[in-house]
UniProtKB/TrEMBL annotation:
One Pfam short name: BRCT
Chain ranges of the BRCT domain: 9-107, 107-199, 348-420
Biased amino acid composition, Acidic residues: 595-609
Organism in which the protein naturally occurs: Lophiotrema nucula
Compositionally biased residues, Basic and acidic residues: 533-558, 566-594
Protein name (Swiss-Prot/TrEMBL): BRCT domain-containing protein
CC terms in the record's Gene Ontology section: Cul8-RING ubiquitin ligase complex; nucleus
Region Disordered, annotated ranges: 458-623
Domain of life: Eukaryota
Gene Ontology BP terms: DNA double-strand break attachment to nuclear envelope; double-strand break repair
TM region positions: none
């Protein structure tokens, strides 16, 4: 599938090919070895002049051997259709006596699977196997159809297959991973750690896996966190310099210009100039003769000319990096090594951004990146924030953001927005996806500046430089007074050829990490059919509102709704965690708006000490201004705001001012409001929290009289529903308090994809009650939970679980013949785990979740005979 150019028997393998070898990262011995392999098989090698740093007569070269894409001629090579390959390509071609696919040996970081050789186990269905293999190949990896010592990853659903047993018996060092890992890698476009997906005990399938562990700082942000350092550069020790004698020298034979907009003190300018000269370089004040142009901003005549001439253009942080490491690096490779747009990213001007779950260098890097976009960075997280950037969703800030309607995004959003100097839309899942059990800090800083977008916006030759206003005097560290920044004309910015484009493949390999989509209105109940098409929510920021309601999520009316009227799917960590509620008063606020102002566990001591002295006064002023939240309410099936986003925003603002917060999170409410008892996703899931049920007359009264009425005067009553369903809602709520979200604890319940209402509807209901829900597509699945304890006499089981047989495995399905094949495979899988299979209608789960006790009626069971008779 990847290689296949065969040689004639009389032709040597590398005949008519010309190579050059980039020395960065290669020892002298390895360079000689690769050179000998090429020349012995008919190829020729042009020596690389590491002092000059460029490939001589690059148009005559057919292949460039390099361990990295970080060398000056990389993008010119791509533009000239020259293959850039790792040294292993030379070895592997000789081993099989044929030319391998160069793309699968590319050092381009965009092809992040280039080091993979993937083999699928026998239990992977053909369709999924093709999707996995296609995704691996698209991202530069290789596929093996048979297990061999070259395989780096074996993909399997469990260990009960021949290839997995062979790996285990031979003690091969090959990780056996779930297919979900490839899916999540492609969703974020990065290689994430394999460990949470590794058999035999993958963390992503554990309900109580604990907190996500921290990660080491990403090497991509090392010495690349500050675009404008004010301290003197660190000079490397002699041994470090000696280790890089074959590296591309940073300044040797180069002329460097330090632009005026750096606002350097005379002393600092002298130190940097001295280091450049000591490294066999020169410092010049002539932009036309400079090889390297160093500046702060993407404007000015010097910046434009240097960029249009394809010279190296970077900032002071870039110069410091090359001084510290003694070798050249592309300034566009690291986000904060390239000059900043003076006015930031246009759409970020009104954003207030905070971060969570990042520490040390990662936190400093993101803080500086936020400021470089032109947004306001806030050390503390409050309700007037617009975005929260987080490495995972297991944090207090993430819970608060969801409660307050604030966008929660991963760092890829701000990195790629800055790289293109344009806000990236959140309509897709790329920026809102958080792989389960993964700390995305591990892949921080892997985004590069987009050359094409930067050139178009800042230094296109078709654009004329525009004059820039004279800058205001700015204080310069170490100087006696302010200096005036350069007022050179503006233009447009930076050289760098476009990277290899990523290709979207691997069609939705099933993953426990649910895809995040937008939530919507509910029009139908589970068990009915209807459209589940999702429309975009409009998000309106209320500029004049109080901090607690700075942003509300607007929902547009959808057809087909239920539960199926739009689905907000949580990330896997939130799905697999049950929130503990201790000593909860049904009328008490669960969180004050000030609770999350304190720094989370990622705050450093310095940041805490940097809090303003008048913080307590500011808090008091806010508290005096805004009524504390008395109740959090979830509203279901009330159409008062349908197709009227402005009225919705005004009403919610008004309600918040009198102490009522309309919440969209069914796991964090103490009032549940509806015109009648309904079986929508929100209503049914929220019952697990034992809220007080009120009718919509409660809202009518509050909006009309500008005060909150006693809940007991507006209780929701529905005797007809209770009689039909066979349980009392008041008793259900009492049982919900007893269950404390643990009704289905240790349960693994399966659900088919085509079930009416949608898989994700029932998943959220099950998770709200402490269970785990897995999608059933007929594939072998490993069940990690043991049989449930049923010894009620020993006091180990709640009275609400007394009817649990303990060894019954449930599959929620529909009475259709198309499900028959899935049923048969489900029975086989259950028996394999010594469990009793039971296939049921959706009615079973709805009853259990609403009545809040385990129960089963024969009428809810499904089998082939029932369906055939009905037909």
């Amino acid at each position: 599938m990847g290689d296949t150019t065969m040689m004639d028997s009389s032709q040597q393998l590398y005949e008519d090919l010309t190579f050059t070898i980039i020395p960065n990262g290669l020892s002298d011995e390895r360079v000689r070895q690769v050179t000998d392999s090429i020349t012995a098989n008919g190829g020729s090698v042009v020596s690389f002049d590491h002092l000059n740093g460029h490939v001589e007569d690059i148009v005559k070269i057919t292949h460039i051997v390099s361990t990295t894409s970080d060398f000056p001629d990389y993008y010119q090579a791509l533009d000239s259709f020259i293959h850039v390959i790792k040294p292993s390509w030379v070895d592997d071609c000789l081993r099989v006596s044929k030319m391998k696919n160069p793309r699968q040996y590319s050092p381009d970081p965009a092809l992040f699977m280039s080091e993979f050789v993937v083999c699928c186990a026998d239990d992977i269905p053909d369709g999924d196997k093709e999707a996995i293999e296609g995704g691996v190949l698209a991202m530069g990896g290789q596929v093996a159809h048979n297990l061999s010592k070259l395989v780096t990853h074996l993909v399997a659903l469990d260990l009960d297959n021949t290839r997995c047993q062979l790996v285990l018996s031979k003690r091969l060092r090959i990780p056996i991973v779930l297919p979900h890992w490839f899916d999540d890698c492609l969703k974020v476009g990065r290689r994430i750690p394999e460990s949470p997906y590794t058999l035999p005990d993958p963390e992503i399938l554990k309900v109580d896996a604990g907190t996500i562990p921290p990660v080491r700082p990403s090497q991509q942000i090392r010495d690349a966190t500050d675009p404008a350092p004010t301290h003197e550069p660190k000079i490397p020790t002699p041994p470090v310099q000696l280790e890089r004698t074959r590296s591309i020298r940073a300044f040797e034979g180069k002329k460097v210009m330090l632009a005026d907009d750096l606002a350097l003190t005379d002393n600092l300018r002298g130190v940097i100039s001295g280091i450049v000269r000591a490294s066999q370089g020169e410092v010049t004040n002539n932009a036309d003769e400079a090889d390297m142009y160093v500046c702060n901003y993407r404007d000015g005549e010097g910046y434009v000319k240097a960029s249009q001439a394809n010279k190296d253009v970077g900032n002071l942080g870039w110069i410091y990096y090359m001084i510290a490491h003694g070798t050249w690096t592309n300034p566009m490779r690291r986000m904060l090594h390239y000059p900043r747009p003076r006015d930031g990213v246009p759409e970020f001007k009104d954003f207030r951004i905070s971060i969570s779950s990042y520490t040390g260098e990662a936190r400093v890097y993101l803080e500086n990146l936020v400021k470089a976009t032109g947004a306001e960075f806030t050390k503390t997280f409050r309700q007037d924030n617009t975005h929260l950037i987080t490495a995972h969703k297991q944090s207090e800030k993430c819970e608060a953001a969801q409660e307050w309607g604030i966008e929660v995004v991963n760092h890829l959003w701000i990195e790629e927005s800055y790289a293109k100097c344009k806000k990236q839309e959140l309509s897709g899942q790329r920026y809102t996806h958080f792989p389960p059990r993964t700390n995305l800090g591990a892949v921080l800083g892997q985004t590069e500046i987009d050359r094409t977008a930067t050139e178009k916006l800042f230094f296109s030759k078709s654009r004329k430089p525009k004059p820039v206003k004279a800058a205001q005097p700015v204080p310069v560290p170490g100087s006696s007074g302010p200096q005036r920044v350069s007022s050179d004309p503006v233009a447009r910015s930076s050289p760098l050829a476009e990277k290899g484009r990523r290709t979207k493949t691997l069609t939705e390999a099933v993953t426990p990490a649910a895809r995040r989509t937008v939530d919507g209105k509910e029009n139908e109940t589970p068990g009915t059919t209807g459209s589940r098409g999702a429309k975009d929510r409009a998000i309106s920021k209320l500029h004049d509102a109080a901090p607690d309601i700075a942003q509300f999520e607007k929902e547009m009316k959808r057809r087909g709704g239920v539960t199926h009227g739009g689905r907000r799917e949580k990330d896997a960590e939130a799905d697999n965690r049950t929130k503990k509620v201790k000593g909860r008063d049904s009328t008490a606020s669960k969180r004050s708006f000030e609770e999350v102002e304190a720094e989370d566990e990622s705050a450093t001591e310095d940041e805490l000490q940097a809090e303003p002295a008048n913080k307590s006064k500011n808090k008091k002023a806010k508290k005096d201004k805004l009524t504390p939240i008395k109740f959090r309410m979830l509203v279901s099936k009330d159409d008062r705001w349908t197709n009227n986003a402005e009225k919705e925003a005004n009403d919610k603002k008004h309600l918040r001012e009198i102490g009522l917060f309309i919440n969209e999170d069914y796991k964090n409410v103490n009032l549940l409001c509806a015109p009648k008892v309904v079986r929508t996703k929100k209503f049914v899931a929220a019952l697990a929290d034992a809220p007080t049920l009120v009718s919509t007359s409660y809202l009518d009264y509050a909006l009309k009289h500008n005060k909150l009425p006693p809940a007991e005067k507006h209780l929701l009553r529905d005797p007809a529903f209770e009689e039909t369903q066979g349980f009392n809602l008041e008793e259900s709520l009492e049982r919900a308090k007893q269950n404390n979200h643990h009704l289905l604890k240790n349960w693994t319940i399966f659900c088919t994809e085509t079930v009416a209402g949608g898989f994700d509807t029932y998943k959220e209901i099950i998770v709200a009650n402490g269970g785990e829900c897995l999608r059933w597509a007929g594939r072998p699945t490993s069940i990690t939970s043991a049989k449930r304890t049923v010894d009620a006499a020993a006091g180990e089981v709640s009275q609400n679980q007394e009817e649990d047989e303990g060894d019954v495995l449930y599959l929620i399905s529909e009475p259709h013949k198309r499900e028959f094949n899935l049923w048969e495979k489900f029975r086989d899988m259950a028996k394999k785990h010594d469990m009793v299979p039971r296939i049921v209608r959706t009615e079973w789960l709805l009853f259990v979740a609403m009545a809040q006790y385990v129960h089963f009626e024969k009428e809810w069971e499904l089998n082939e005979d029932i369906v055939n008779v009905a037909k």
